[in-house]
Amino acid sequence: MNLLYLGLLLFVTLLTTLYLASSKAIFAFSDWTFHAARVEEIYLNLKSGSFFTFIAARTFHNTGAASFLFYPYIFFYPWAFLRFILSPVNAFYAWYALVTFATATISYFSMKAYSKKSLASFIFSLVYTFAPYRLYLGGAVFGEYLAVTFLPLLFLGIYEVLWSDKKKWYLLAISGALVAYAHILSVFLSLQFAVILFIIKLITSRGISKDRIKSLLLPAGVCVFLVLPVIVPFFTDFIGQGLSSAKPSISYTMGPRYLLLNSFSAQKGWKLSFMLMLTILTAWAFIKSRRNWIIYGLGLFACFLTTRYFPWKLTAGTPFEMVQLTARYLSYPSLFLTILFALGSSSVLEEHVTGRKKLALSCSLAVFMALFSLSSLSVYRDTLKHVQDMPKTSANSTQPAPFKRLRDYNYYNQFNYKILFGAFDYMPKSSLTSVQKQNSLLMHQAYLNGKTLTLSPLIKANQISYQVKSEKAADVDLPVIAYKHTTVSVNGQKHAFRRGNRGTVVVGLKRGQNTVTVGYKASPVFYLSIFISILSWLALLIYLVKFKAKYAQ
Fold this sequence. Notes:
The protein is an alpha+beta fold.
């Protein structure tokens, strides 16, 4: 049955993806330009023979912004590699299909391990993978979109360690690492529910055994080694460097009525599906086990967190402000409530369906979810029909990227606009103190001898060069951000520099024509972290092979 269900999941994945891809266009909204620029930088660096990307030399207006250091991007490599064989638009949709099918597969096998029921697992995978909120994330919010892929495996790992087979601690280590490589904030969100589950375990079991405590600490320690390349840059380049990050704040835009009524519409967006809203309203009538009551409670609480009725004002000045948008919690009721929906609906169906009828039922469910997803995505398709193409703009424009349509012929136009969200993330705070400073970076403005110069950069992977002519010895303030491991050379020779009041590279020049090159050289500790991480993944793989062999006996 596994092959049948996986085949049906692949069918729905391809059908929904081809429906979007047939538009031959992309709607550039929300975080799209931020992530598209990161993928473009990775692709161009790969094209020039450089595997690692540290700073934005070719995109982000050539400011040298280090979003690559502090925002994981490993799962963007498949998208970048697809650019070598497909057009820009088709490369994105091919990557979209890969992530969607990966989500469906991981969801199916996670639920199968939890419930031991194939039909329930299939229903869970369909409803979770093609949930309206996840479809929304797949349009532009790619950090969360990737993290959602691994949430079922993560909570399976938590369940195994706390309540079931503690020897399967490795599920928690692997899934935690995968979420961290996708979206750091999702680690923080998931940790909140993990703590709640731990407290529930303490209450319902009147304590917890030392063995289970060890089984919790072990994956936590292993996970740290697995994600060292994500952690290390924060210690080597962020802490104590006066850098900014995404602005902490809470936006509580939804009320229960909005969430309830909106979830019965067909569109994707900040909402649950009507199936999950029905689960909220009716599940209490058929829940019998304590385990399912816990899941139901978590689903309701996650819904509550998305609304303005949760006292978010009390979180001011705390790490919880990192959440920014309370809608981010929608991924969690989508997970918990779908478990109940899948268990309940599959039990009812299996009582009345056997043999060939089960095959027909499975195919019917796949077709229904495909049609439901196409209905959710139809608004996106309609938007692509009516929105205008993104026009050209100057290479140093300060105009924010508009919500416009991208096709293969105008795909590159987006990179000349100011990135709408995240253009100045992870820059020195001193560079953000005025709009004038920000715009001077976007416009490639340097300062020399009291004069403002607009320079044209010469670009290589992780490297930006400028030709600067000075009538006398003087300091030049270049429009490139200075980080702890930034390197500078003048006329091919390594040169000292300082950070200016814009947070940029300031270097002393001699009279005459000078070629100033700003680059980035990662700390040796970073490369050591990669080596340790690879060894840790290999060691875990060897352990899994031996564990499975022993388990089979």
